[in-house]
Each structure stands twice: as C-alpha cells, then as structure tokens.
Amino acid sequence: MYELTVNNVSKSFAKKVALNNVSLKVRKGSIFGLIGPNGAGKSTLTSILATLTLPNEGTVEISNLDVVSKVNKVRKKVGVTFQQTTVFSTGTAWENLWIAGKMYGMSTTKIMERGEHLLKEFDLFQASNDLVDTYSGGMKRKLDIAISLLHTPDILLLDEPTAGLDPESRTTLWQIVTKISQDEGTTIFVTTHYLEELNHLATEIALINNGKILDIGTPKELINKLAADQIEIHYRKLDLANIHKIEAYISNLKEIVRHEIKPTVLTIMTSHGQQILSELLKYLIQSNVEIKFSELKQATLNDVYLANFNEKEAEL
Ligand SMILES: Nc1ncnc2c1ncn2[C@@H]1O[C@H](COP(=O)(O)OP(=O)(O)OP(=O)(O)O)[C@@H](O)[C@H]1O
C-alpha cells in the first residue's frame, strides 16, 4: 500500500539540524508534494531517499526495503532528478541514455526499447541525435527526467523539477510525468516552490520548515484547515430588526469561523465559502434583503504557505 515510509528521521551537518524527527508515508502510485522555504530540509530528505545521504537517526523504507541496509536493491527501485541538471551536454540524448542505461546494468536491447519509448513520451525523439548543448532548458529537464525513468523505477524523486522553466514548459512536463505515473504506476515524490502545480496534481502534501514536518494532508484538507475563504455580501441598508434576524440565522450556520454584520455589508470567514455563500444568498433573498453584489475569495495553497511559513514571496 505504501511505496515510501519515513520513520523518525533526523540528520545534522556539523551543528546544523537539517531534519528533525521526520515521519511520513507515501502511497503507491500517488503524487506526494513536499513544500517548504529555502533551507527547510527538502533536498536533504530527497537525498536520503535517493540513498546518497545517510540519516543519523530513524529509518526509511522504499518498496519495503531499508534504504541503508538494502542500498543496491533500493537504487534499482528509485529514479531521481535533482535541481541541477546532470545531463552530459556535449553528447546527444541517446548517448546520455546509453551511459545511464549501462550504469543501471541494462541490456542494449532494453536501453534501445525503453529509451525510444521515453524519448517519444517526452517529445524528444526528433532531437535525440542532436547535441544536448543545443537543447532549451525545458528539453534538458525532460531529458533529465527521462533518464531517471530509464530503469522503470517504482518511485521517482523530483527535487524542484520545474524551477526556472516557463509556465508552458512546466505544464507540458507535468502532463508527461503524470501520464507516465498513471501508465506505469510510478509513485512521484516532488519538492517544488510552484504551489499551484501541487494544488492540481498532488494527492498529499507535507509542509516542512526547519527540518520539521508541520502538517500533512490533501491540498483541500490543508486549505480547509485555514478556514480562510472570505465572503462579502453588500446590500441596501438594513434596519436593526433585520440585522438581529440575520445575526440569529448566521449563528446557526456551521463552518463559520468569524463574521461581522454591518448595516450595508456582511463579512464571513469560513472553510466552505461556496456552500455558505449560496445558502446565505438564498436566505437573504427570501428575507427580501436587496442585494447589491457579493464576493467570494477562496483560500489557496498560497494562503496555506503564508500561514505556515509567513513568507511574502510564495509563488502564486
Ligand atoms: N552538506 C551540507 N553541509 C552543511 N549544511 C548543509 C548541507 N546540506 C544541507 N545543509 C543545511 O541543511 C539545511 C537544509 O538544507 P536543504 O538543502 O535540505 O534545504 P532545502 O529545503 O532543500 O532548501 P532549498 O529550497 O534552498 O533547496 C540548510 O540549513 C542547509 O544549509
């Protein structure tokens, strides 16, 4: 059921604690996102999962194999793409695939078959005999990921895979990666600063800061926890009797975190903006309140980021 299990993992570099008692579980075939500001510990965790860094404490299992004691078996199950490209730019795509395939111990036939399939999936087949030096940033990134998938890993680790790419290349890249994940059942573990990508793609998200996991949930769960949808309804001036009547109605509604009712405007904070707005409009219209206009500002993953990390530069 779980492709990856991280149990109480800690890691320090000299006096710097990079990971502090981190635990999480990632379901087979899911897309799991790790969000956190610079220096939060995302790359350190990715590197431990990729068997390139040893944890000081705790255990990690990938496909039920311990990453420390079963390192060689685990490496066959894991594909990894780091922030910096690892493609050999003075070679062609085929030469890069060839070197990687031989390092994975793949036969020539298997490299040719799988390589051709991936080059086609990533729309690199036409350019596969060109030097990588002539590729755009997006093409290099696609080749990086294609190489990580060459040995058909169970889990693909992507450390900020879309950093520096334009929106179109990011969208294309995610379309290809999600298709492969669906076709082959590959589990995806991704760190990114582009929160809107995770909102649509991730099955679950973990928030990490200063090496600690702050929260884990589906994008919807994390957004709903904030209860940060904001409703504003503007109407023709109400008399005191009507204000009291509406006040009584609102106090019976569930899911309302905070509200303020004034003679010409009603403001509400809730986790269920859309539902509460339609219920309220229906009630106000039935009560002959003359509505001028209403607004709904729904909370986003960006709000989750700001609430947890208090950073202004979240990219949404
Ligand atoms: N090899 C190392 N030696 C010393 N300190 C390190 C090393 N690797 C990471 N650190 C420190 O550990 C902490 C976590 O770093 P890490 O690179 O995992 O964060 P990150 O969330 O990936 O950040 P970014 O988004 O900037 O890549 C940081 O304070 C970093 O300086």
Automatic annotation (TrEMBL):
It comes from the Bacteria. InterPro entries: AAA+_ATPase, ABC_transporter-like_ATP-bd, ABC_transporter-like_CS, ABC_transporter_ATP-binding, P-loop_NTPase. Residues 4-235 form the ABC transporter domain. Belongs to the ABC transporter superfamily. It comes from Virgibacillus salarius. Pfam families: ABC_tran (PF00005). This is ATP-binding cassette domain-containing protein. Keywords: ATP-binding, Nucleotide-binding, Transport. The keyword ATP-binding applies. The keyword Mitochondrion does not apply. One of its GO terms (molecular function) is ATP binding. PROSITE patterns: ABC_TRANSPORTER_1, ABC_TRANSPORTER_2. SMART domains: AAA.
